[in-house]
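Duplicate of #3305? Posting structure anyway:
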């Protein structure tokens, strides 16, 4: 790759993202010239945007809310994990077509390993049933975890599902026992307030609490969980670890975690 590598992150509304910072840090660490930018893109505009970026010589893009499921139909071929999760967060442009992958789940398992949190045999509760939740569920299941999704409408016709993963109602008696016995509780919804989507006091004290939401400061739910005595992290950690996986796919070279983490101030 002698030409500068051009990357981007797409999403809507995309009011705050550190993906371009991570992309630039990864490119530099791996010895490449290049740049990255954030481009607001709606679901309706996704196909046209990808066509535009491909024509202009971009090498790849990351995708965030609400594009991950829609992107499945926008690529020529999908990785097995993207196929199972019905979620694509990484796209590469090649001469024989676009490929789509999901680095969220593998990146999340990498993150847990970095925290010395074993995955095999753990009881995991994911709040939400969107693309991010399904991507994490697939990788956690493959790593030996027992996984349950808590959804507002678990029995909605045509709702997303993952083979081997249980689905329960977010507001119900079953959720109380699941949260009280979980080793890992993950908020995979866009909501992050002090008590929503789940009051931290409902979660086992020994559990690791993870909020996939991130922003300029530590998320409200993460702060509330820490104040209640739980170990908790927000979504900046996953962003770093999934970015490493995406960059390794685009560049065919691992940039490592340290330069990425340093670029965005992880851990915090």
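Output from current build:
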């Amino acid at each position: 790759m002698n030409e500068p590598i051009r990357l981007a992150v797409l999403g809507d509304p995309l009011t705050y993202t550190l993906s371009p910072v991570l992309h630039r840090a990864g490119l530099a660490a791996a010895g490449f010239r290049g740049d990255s930018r954030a481009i607001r893109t709606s679901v309706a505009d996704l196909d046209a945007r990808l066509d535009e970026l491909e024509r202009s010589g971009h090498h790849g893009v990351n995708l965030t809310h609400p594009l991950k499921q829609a992107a499945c139909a926008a690529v020529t071929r999908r990785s097995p994990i993207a196929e199972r999760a019905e979620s694509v967060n990484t796209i590469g442009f090649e001469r024989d077509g676009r490929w789509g992958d999901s680095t969220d789940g593998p990146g999340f398992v990498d993150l847990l390993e970095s925290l010395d949190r074993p995955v095999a045999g753990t009881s995991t509760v994911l709040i939400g049933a969107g693309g991010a939740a399904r991507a994490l569920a697939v990788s956690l299941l493959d790593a030996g975890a027992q996984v349950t999704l808590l959804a507002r409408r678990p029995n909605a016709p045509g709702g997303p599902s993952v083979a081997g993963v249980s689905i329960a109602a977010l507001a119900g008696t079953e959720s109380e026992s699941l949260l009280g016995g979980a080793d890992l509780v993950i908020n995979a919804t866009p909501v992050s307030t002090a008590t929503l989507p789940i009051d931290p006091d409902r979660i086992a004290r020994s559990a690791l609490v993870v909020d996939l939401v991130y922003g300029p400061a530590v998320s409200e739910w993460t702060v509330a969980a820490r104040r209640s005595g739980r170990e908790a992290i927000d979504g900046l950690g996953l962003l770093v670890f999934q970015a490493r996986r995406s960059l390794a796919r685009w560049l065919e070279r691992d940039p490592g975690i340290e330069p990425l983490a340093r670029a965005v101030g992880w851990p915090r």
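Confirmed duplicate; merging threads. Residues 236-251 form the longest helix (16 residues). Residues 215 and 239 are 11 Å apart (CA to CA).
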